[in-house]
Amino acid sequence: MPLPRRVTIVEVGARDGLQNEDVIVSTDDKVELIRRLVAAGITRIETASFVHPGRVPQMADAEAVMEVLGPSPEGVSYTGLVLNRRGLDRALATPVNEVNLVVAATEGFSVANQGAAVSTVMASIGEMVAAAQAAGLAATVTISVAFGCPYEGEVEPGVVADLAARIGAAGADEIALGDTIGVAVPPDVTTRLALVRDAVGDTGLRVHFHDTRNTGIANVHAALAAGVSVVDASVGGAGGCPFAPNATGNVPTEDVLYMLERSGIETGVDLDAVTETGRWLARLLEKELPSAIARAGVFPG
Ligand code: MG
Question: Which fold has domain 8-296?
Answer without folding.
Answer: TIM Barrel (3.20.20)
